[in-house]
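FORM 7B: Structural annotation worksheet

SECTION A. Query
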Amino acid sequence: MSKEQTTRFGVESPSKSEGRPYSGTTRPFLRWAGSKRKQLPTLSRFWNTDFTRYVEPFMGSACLCFELKPKNALLGDINYDLVRTFLAVRDHPQAVANRLANIPRGRHSYYSIRSQQLSEMDAADAAARFIFLNRYCFNGLYRTNEAGQFNVPFAPAGTGRLATAADLHVVSKALKSCKIKHADFESILARTREGDLVYLDPPYAVGNRRVFRQYGPSSFGLHDLQRLAESLASMDARNVKFVLSYADCAEATEYFHQWPRRKMFIQRNIAGFGGKRRRAGEVLISNCFPGGMSHN
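SECTION B. Predicted structure
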């Protein structure tokens, strides 16, 4: 890093904390629609020291991985921009932090940054852009149009704090034990082996109501449920343990009926508005429910 480097967001100043070791709790550095942060106490019970690797093919904000802190992990996602951001934070946290610190805050800046072309950015700039837009967008959504351009509007309030350099260094340290792949879920699950714990939290494709297409028109949908069911059956036959979060719906019963399940009710915002909440039915489906956890 040079002492002063011009970036597409302004002038990058060297941080006094460059190279300093950081300590603290590893928290997700991204907001994510449908995040399982509130379910972490339940989901964490599936992990134990007998597992040799943690695998997550729909990684999103990877909040369960950060909670478990596995010594060996494989994370994957079909969202290239998300994967590229994780890799940049893992490998170059200070560069990303410096670029992020130089992005002006506010609505005008948000739409200006959103309109920029990723093809013109290096990895650190692209990661800073992703983190900035994710923090200040509506409800932590990631959505693109047909051309693949991020199009979620600005949120004027309630978005929380932007990640600091200290935050990104803690995240980088946690991610050093993780292989991170840009891949379809089926490809990731084909790499699993006995000794893995696989956690799956795909976008919920439900036939009788409108479902948000998390990554755009080619993202996970009803047509992928058969592939997912076949991948689960393959893992089960190979003695690979898994946990699947899904909506409590007819599709969950149709495709995943052969495994035990536990029903849960999750408090959700309606359309992202904090004052309007409802209890949404979800199920955990698994071939390795821990002792003492009820299921049917």
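SECTION C. Observations
Residues 267 and 279 are 5 Å apart (CA to CA). Confidence is low (pLDDT under 50) at residues 1-7, 10-24, 270-274.

SECTION D. Sign-off
Analyst initials: ____
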